[in-house]
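[job 0412] stage=complex_fold ligand=nicotinamide-adenine-dinucleotide status=START
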Amino acid sequence: MADNVTRRDVLKTAAATGAALAVPRMVFAESAPVMKIGVIGCGGRGSGAVADHLAANPTAVLHAMADVFPDRLAGSHDNLKKALKDRIKVADDMKFTGFDAYKKLLKTDVDLVILATPPGFRPWHLEAAVDAGKHIFMEKPVAVDGYGIQKVIEASEKAKAKGLGIVAGTQRRHDLAYNEVIKRVHDGQIGDIVEMSCYWNQGGLWMNPRQPNWSDMEWQLRNWLYFTWLSGDHIVEQHIHNIDVCLWAKGSHPVKATALGGRQTRVDPAYGHIYDHFAVEYTFADGSRMHSYCRQQDGTPSNVSERINGTKGVATSEDFGNVPIQIMGSNPFKWESSRKRPNPYMLEHLDLYNSIVAGKPLNEGRQVAESTMTAILGRLAAYSGQEITWEQAMATKRTMPEDWSFGHLPVPAVALPGSYKVE
Ligand SMILES: NC(=O)c1ccc[n+]([C@@H]2O[C@H](COP(=O)([O-])OP(=O)(O)OC[C@H]3O[C@@H](n4cnc5c(N)ncnc54)[C@H](O)[C@@H]3O)[C@@H](O)[C@H]2O)c1
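[job 0412] stage=complex_fold status=DONE, emitting structure tokens
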């Protein structure tokens, strides 16, 4: 938790790679040893997470980089170097490319690694990082099927036994305003939770048109959002953030789901085979429900929020009169917009770093695995049109191809409810 950060006089510094940076006052000796970090997956978020980590941890330098594509690695390195200068110390022989780049990076002497590839690869990268004895920051989501989730849970348990830290990129869990509201929910200030709703509705995202020299694999990797084996579909890739907040409030995961979904506006094969909307009804063991809605359709309004309905009140992150997070009911609370609210993308790294220094490394592996699994469960219910249980979803097979190479890779058909098989 980052609750003590408000006392730490967070200083604003320049923005780098699009991330608003904030450097906390040092809480450790000036002579603290240099912490070497590495990044696997040097795209938008991998680069942003490097900047966020360096902002949170003044002892850190970026020491090694890995990406499947040389151009992505080079672009990320140049941008980071321009913004963060001597904090970026990546020698040429510490830049690794190709599918096995992660293995090469993990053989170096980095202390902490950032995992920020498309989530399909995360279970393998996490497992290898834990085996190599590295502390880990991993982006959400952390898998795309039950097979991958089980791998993540096993690796997270192993990390715990080895004293390695794992923090996940579900940054709302480190946001001060969210923490204040969820603490009040856990203290019973809205009574018993009877229903939750969550939303990630927005327009479409980027797409890279296929180039004549790209193999199927290269095309899919450069458009990973649109292939379920890489992204998990947008309910997993994006809406996991809101599902995660509800699971945090509730303190458990659902036991089953039914859902609707489809692909109406984004039908061109350039957008792979994923859906563009989902609506899911989840049921928890106590019979309470969670309703989840997500959409990526151009020309439609945005709503990215959660609403937790209790017997004595409502906790919500919907925007009421510019108050982004509040509780309404018999115990009202408002997060005052004038209060300091440091960037949660930085706080998650600060919390990880402080926990390592304190010798009590955080381990968010199981928590983010369960939120990812909940999103996968919703996808499977929508794809199949059937009620799907947690156990059925957990038992789903590996969707990652066996062969990681640049070659032929057919695109699965768009899932058709009524005939799609959950296996
Ligand atoms: N927490 C957040 O708010 C947030 C925001 C954006 C993205 N993300 C997550 O971060 C992750 C990355 O997203 P992004 O927006 O940076 O995507 P991106 O496409 O910008 O970057 C992904 C990078 O991974 C590389 N890559 C792909 N497969 C690889 C492999 N097998 N080995 C090594 N490198 C590989 C790609 O070449 C690319 O450079 C995703 O899981 C995404 O969901 C989280």
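Confidence is low (pLDDT under 50) at residues 1-29.
[job 0412] exit 0
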